[in-house]
């Protein structure tokens, strides 16, 4: 029995096509899972004096890491590193890698509010600005 004949030109064409597809994937922009019209876009980070400190977190919609990076005017890598170090307000659910940010809390933080870190069961955590009500309690 003779082995099947391998056409080297076909193999090289296939390898070149795989390399081209991989290169395109590396250049592809990161797209949020939410619809484009739902993403609050900011060209520059807000000024600390421009945003009055909101009284409640429920007034703002949750932001994903990419959205928070756009809102703050920094890279997603910077936002993830700040979250890992507890330097930016966010929520992390135990057992999940996703981070959730709230625009109102980010605004409070930019206005100079100190951060309170609460470690939850597993690897979950809540990092939020200390408000006057919680500081007095």
Radius of gyration: 22 Å
- Range of strand content: 5-15%
Report the oligomer.
single chain
**Helix content estimate:** 25-40%
Q: Separation of termini? A: 85 Å
Gross morphology:
elongated
Query: Quick one: biggest sheet?
Result: 5 strands, antiparallel
Q: Spatial order of the strands in the main sheet? A: 1-3-2-5-4
Would you report the number of β strands? 5
Instruction: Please tell me the overall pLDDT.
Output: 76
Helical/strand content category: alpha+beta
Order of helices and strands: HEHHEEHEEH
Count of all domains? 1
Which regions are unreliable across 5 or more consecutive residues at pLDDT < 50? Answer: 51-58
Q: Determine the number of helices (DSSP H or I, runs of at least 4 residues).
A: 5
Account of the protein in words:
By secondary structure, the protein is of the alpha+beta class. The protein has one domain (36-136). The chain is 37% helix and 14% strand. It has helices spanning 8-27, 65-72, 76-85, 103-110, 132-136, and strands at 62-63, 90-92, 99-102, 115-119, 125-129. The longest helix has 20 residues, at 8-27. Mean pLDDT is 76; it is low at 51-58.
What characteristics describe this protein?
alpha+beta
Write the layout of secondary structure elements.
Elements: H1 8-27, E1 62-63, H2 65-72, H3 76-85, E2 90-92, E3 99-102, H4 103-110, E4 115-119, E5 125-129, H5 132-136
Antiparallel strand pairs: 1-3, 2-3, 2-5, 4-5
């Amino acid at each position: 029995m003779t082995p099947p004949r391998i056409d080297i030109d076909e193999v090289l064409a296939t390898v070149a096509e795989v390399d081209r597809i991989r290169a395109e994937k590396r250049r592809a922009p990161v797209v949020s899972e939410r619809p484009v019209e739902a993403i609050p876009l900011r060209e520059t980070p807000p000024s600390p004096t421009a945003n009055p400190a909101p009284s409640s977190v429920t007034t703002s919609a949750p932001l994903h890491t990419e959205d928070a990076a756009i809102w703050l005017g920094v890279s997603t890598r910077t936002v993830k590193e700040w979250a890992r170090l507890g330097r930016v307000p966010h929520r992390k659910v135990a057992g999940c890698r996703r981070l959730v940010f709230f625009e109102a809390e980010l605004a409070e933080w930019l206005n100079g509010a100190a951060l309170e870190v609460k470690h939850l069961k597993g690897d979950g955590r809540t990092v939020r600005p200390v408000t006057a009500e919680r500081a007095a309690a």
